[in-house]
Write a structure and sequence with these properties.
heterodimer; A: 15 helices; 2 strands; transmembrane (chain B)
Chain lengths: 424, 253
């Protein structure tokens, strides 16, 4: 049922990024009186120097065992894996940014300033007075960040008290909105830009099919590529909404504040993201549920319903990354579906690939999209793009260099991902 | 017409580097990372040098055209020097990373050799430099109208593309030669690379006179390519071995 410790110590390519405990037993069960190995496992998972998760730092017997394995092989594998998986992430991140930039440059709707604002940024930016504008953008940021903090805390509470159905429903609602309403808006604007005549019945057919297949792919099962494509599309849609509705200066201040918040939320002992991650680990649920983009995934028939509530922590992480209610909801949504799939195929999948939270996608795309929107200059956009790629690479490599000593590749990867998430 | 110019110039400028990327770099994650980091280093050098130029421009009298031209020339040369400094810095960084990789690997040899890194780093510099030169020009070439109404040369787009191609290749060759020179502590090599770069940049300043800038740059590119080939370990023997091996394989298959 659970992989033994010795298996855990064999670092071959295949097991590099595998969660060693196999959640074939649905982790959504109330009794966590699982056998001891699982305990040890979860302790081991968090028992590394990973500063964010130092709560369970008592080394089990496995730790000592692991420490005896040769460091070099581990490190080399770690770095090789780091490199390979960084590249696997480049492609979806690049695709999302390309979609956002292409839309920004062609469809003028997303760069038109409208008087409408999100309710999360209630203060209007007056272009005439610099001081007032700056003040308002900071106030907007405070409002937005407090909304995110409150929602994160609500989610942690819900997760802690196992209100999985509520979270689940919330996620489905948000992804419904994203897949149907936002894509309808997007399609409408694209048709307007290219002067394409379209009748409503055809449009309804298109949107209906797109939305339903998206819901199925994201929340249940679907071909990997299709699911990846849908996740990229909804990240791009979300990013476009942010680019349109966030006022200029507020957008930049919010981007900065979000990064800082992410760091705090994951580093502080009482930080919501950290609590979420710890709770998920205590319950021995995979920390990276649904709302993540996964580069390698296989779905098992018959595992449709390990209704994993662990999406909460992913949601948390993405809350840090998600910039608004809708964003969070939609992310959670996708997270939920992917999560089930994730736990299902864990045993089967040989190369687990990498996982990246959709909040990261959205954050990067907003950054690059804003750069593309504010200047007519392509050089700025290209420079932002390269800078983002370098940030991701250096984060992962930094993580691998700093923490290469005694951890399994999986631990290291785990650590990268959360650190990576909180960088954003 | 505009679309044809766009695609033509895009393929001229980026075709070879794209092919090099696809065939030699895309499959190896480590090389891709080194490529992107090289591009980033070039970007940093450009950022710093443009900052200096920008400050100089703002601090000077904007009405004096010869002063502005002088500042431009100064900016170009300063940028060239800074690019070479960053190339050296990147070399040091890669050496350190290589030692780290070698130390942690099983058989004490790194996964990637310094020569491969030199090539990849040079290509990274070249691609980024080419992209920065060419992207805005390409996006303008798509637009309505074309160059020439105010008496500018009609060959602007194509010479820009050809110049970009030459510079990309040159950066690649210089990367190879430069790293090799640093490895073997041959400082004359470094001086040669720097002066060649300065020469090419200076030639580009002749620019509306395209006969003065483009053919000489290509005349410089070809020998530099040959130099890079021999510097990275190639030889006439290996070339002929390549041909005969192909022939032998062709006969046997």
């Amino acid at each position: 049922m659970n992989t033994s410790d010795s298996e855990e110590d064999s670092y071959n390519e295949r097991s590099a990024l595998v969660q060693s405990e196999s959640p074939t037993i649905p982790s959504y069960n109330q009794d966590h009186d699982m056998s001891l190995p699982q305990e040890t496992d979860s302790k081991r998972v968090s028992g590394h120097e990973f500063s964010f998760l130092s709560c369970l730092d008592e080394p089990g017997p496995v730790e000592r065992e692991r420490a005896s394995t040769p460091d070099g092989e581990e490190e080399e594998l770690t770095l090789k894996y780091g490199a390979k998986h960084v590249i696997m992430l480049f492609i979806p991140v690049t695709l999302c940014m390309v979609v956002v930039v292409a839309t920004i440059k062609s469809v003028s709707f997303y760069t038109e300033k409208s008087s409408q604002r999100l309710i999360y940024t209630p203060f209007e930016e007056d272009p005439n007075s610099v001081g007032q504008r700056l003040l308002n953008s900071f106030l907007n940021t405070i409002v937005m960040i407090s909304v995110i903090v409150v929602m994160t805390i609500i989610l942690v509470v819900l997760y802690k008290y196992r209100c999985y159905k509520f979270i689940h429903g919330w996620l489905i609602l948000s992804s419904l909105m994203l897949l149907f309403w936002f894509s309808f808006m997007y399609l409408g604007e694209v048709f307007k830009t290219y002067n394409v005549a379209m009748d409503y019945p055809t449009l309804v057919m298109i949107i209906w099919n797109f939305g339903v297949v998206g819901m199925i792919c994201i929340h249940w099962k679907g071909p990997l590529r299709l699911q990846q494509a849908y996740l990229i599309v909804i990240s791009a849609l979300m990013a476009l909404i942010f680019i349109k509705y966030l006022p200029e200066w507020s957008a930049w201040v919010i981007l900065g504040a979000i990064s800082i918040y992410d760091l705090i939320a994951v580093l502080c002992p009482k930080g919501p993201l950290r609590m979420l991650v710890e709770t998920a680990q205590e319950r021995n649920e995979p920390i990276f549920p649904a709302l993540i983009y996964s580069s390698a995934m296989v779905w098992m028939v018959g595992m449709a319903d390990s209704s994993n509530p662990g999406s909460a922590d992913e949601r948390q992480r993405n809350e840090g990354g998600a910039r608004a209610q809708e964003g969070v909801e939609s992310e959670d949504d996708a997270a939920q579906g992917g999560r089930r799939r994730y736990s299902a195929e864990e045993d089967l999948e040989e190369d687990r690939g990498v996982k990246l939270g959709l909040g990261d996608f959205i954050f990067y795309s907003v950054l690059v999209g804003k750069a593309a929107a504010t200047g007519g200059d392509w050089n700025t956009t290209l420079a932002c793009f390269v800078a983002i790629l370098i940030v991701s690479v250096s984060t992962i490599i930094y993580g691998s260099v700093m923490y290469r000593l005694t951890y399994t590749n999986r631990d290291v990867f785990l650590m990268f991902k959360v650190y990576y998430a909180c960088r954003v | 017409m505009t679309l044809a110019v766009f695609f033509g110039c895009a393929f001229i400028a980026f075709g070879p580097s794209f092919a090099l990327f696809v065939f030699t770099i895309a499959r190896e994650p480590l090389r891709v990372i080194i490529l992107i980091a090289g591009a980033f280093f070039w970007l940093l050098s450009l950022l710093l040098s443009s900052l200096v130029w920008f400050i100089a421009i703002k601090a000077s009298n904007s009405q004096d055209p010869s002063l502005q031209r002088g500042l431009l020339i100064f900016g170009v040369f300063f940028s060239v020097l800074l690019q070479e400094v960053f190339r050296f810095a990147y070399y040091r960084l890669l050496r350190k990373a290589n030692e780290g990789l070698a130390a942690i690997s099983d058989d004490d040899s790194s996964a990637i050799s310094v020569r491969q890194m030199a090539y990849v780093a040079g290509l990274g510099f070249g691609i980024m430099s080419g992209a920065f030169s060419m992207i805005n020009v390409l996006s303008d070439s798509l637009g309505p109208g074309t160059v020439g109404i105010f008496g500018d040369s009609q060959y602007y787009f194509i010479t820009a593309a050809l110049m970009t191609l030459a510079l990309t290749l040159l950066h690649t060759f210089w990367g190879v030669v430069f790293f090799e020179g640093c490895e073997k502590s041959r400082w004359w090599v470094i001086a040669a690379v720097v002066s060649l770069h300065l020469l090419v940049a200076g030639l580009s300043l002749l620019n509306p006179l395209y006969e003065g800038s483009l053919p000489p740059v290509y005349v410089i590119t070809l020998p530099t390519g040959v130099w890079a080939f021999f510097s990275s370990g190639g030889s006439l023997h290996s070339l002929s071995a390549l041909c005969t091996r192909r022939k032998a394989e062709g006969e046997s298959s």
